[in-house]
Amino acid sequence: MNDAVSLIENFMNSPDVFITMLVLGFIIVFMVIIIYLIRYLSETAPYAYVNARVRSMEARLLDENKLNELIESAGTTELINQLEDSDYGPYLLDALGNENDPTFAEKALDTHLAHLYEALAHMSPEGARKILRLFEMKFDVKNIKTLLRAKFVGLDAEQTYALLVPLGSLKDKLRELCETKSVEELASSLEGYEFSKLLSDGLTDYEQTKRLTTMELALDKFILENLWKNVSINGTEKDLFKEYVGTLLDVENLKVILKGKADNLSSEIVLKYVTETGYELAPWKLKELAEADSIDGVISGLDSTKYAPLLTHALEEYQKTNSIYEFEKVFDDYVVSTGKKLSLRQPFGVGPIIGLITSKEAEIRKLKIIIKGKIEGLSATDIRKLMA
Question: Where are the transmembrane segments (predicted)?
Fold first, then answer.
């Protein structure tokens, strides 16, 4: 036995054995690094082309000087002319002649945004493409909301069609939907589509209240739940799209809850339009917030979350203006900052796509504020306050 132990000790103490083990250790570390690099490159290489295009699009975003120039413009005609060389130029040409109606400019901007999502989905790898296609669904929802409002106020088919974004899964059916004469007929014409049950369920409330709020909130909830379901099944905890969609989920739920408190809606009604799950806000927390007595109670209930500081600051402005817009503005800014952070975290993968769509949506919101401000005759100072 002692001879065997002695033999093993002599073997281990041999310089050749030490060198051999050292070399094997280096080989193992090297192989781990190679495997990591191969995996990293396999995940990021498919994004090389799309990210080159994304950075080109980012370079065409409007800077602060350009936005200030638009704010200082003499009116909407001059503003549209100043945007002639931008990505919005070809779209806004259709709004000329209707400068005093913001809906035409808003449609032009929304059409540009829809084309952006469409282009990104077309050039992106399969994983990102699937999520971007789901984001495109919000233009279907936007069209349905526009159709509902048009039927509600009695616009004719041509007036209605002029307000629609001619994209999405309903593109070939929009003309037919414009011909409907009422909200009830519109809901019936969408039978067989994934939105139809939502609209049918909302008709009872509409007939009682003559308000479209129920249907519109149900459509918004439908989009969020579809996005979240998809990223939860196909994504991973490290998937940036999951974090981005999760942030949207929480933010939109909080908007619904705060609006419900501002409108004195019961918790039962509010919870109908809050998604069944959240990202950082668990279902029990969402229920607790919906059951709060007031907006102050909602903010107190968020004390242990990252959303509390945002709302505490916005509460001061809300108390001055009594407008829920103060909270929505803070949430929208938070989504943009989240998108920018995610774009830096994974600069060679899906990050830049998320960064671009959040920046572009924020830019379009600003342009809508400027255009509406010009039409309403607001001063440059007042427009800047709305954008702040």
Answer: 17-38
* Distance, CA of 304 to CA of 283 (rounded, Å): 15
Spatial neighbors of 157 by CB under 8 A, at least 6 apart, are 175, 178, 179
Flag whether 205 is in a domain.
Answer: yes
Note down the domain range covering 173.
56-387
Tokens standing for 12?
């281990």
Does the residue 165 lie in any domain? yes
Q: Which two tokens stand for residue 46?
A: 């498919």
Q: What are 263-292's pLDDT values in tens digits? A: 888 899 899 999 988 899 999 999 999 999
Q: Which residues of the chain have pLDDT under 70?
A: 1-45, 233-238
In a domain, residue 50? The reply is no
pTM: 0.82
The reply to whether 25 falls in a domain is no
Q: How far apart are CA 95 and CA 109, in angstroms?
A: 10
Beta strands in the chain (DSSP E): none
Cβ atoms of 311 and 299 within 8 Å: the answer is: yes
Report the domain count for the chain: 1
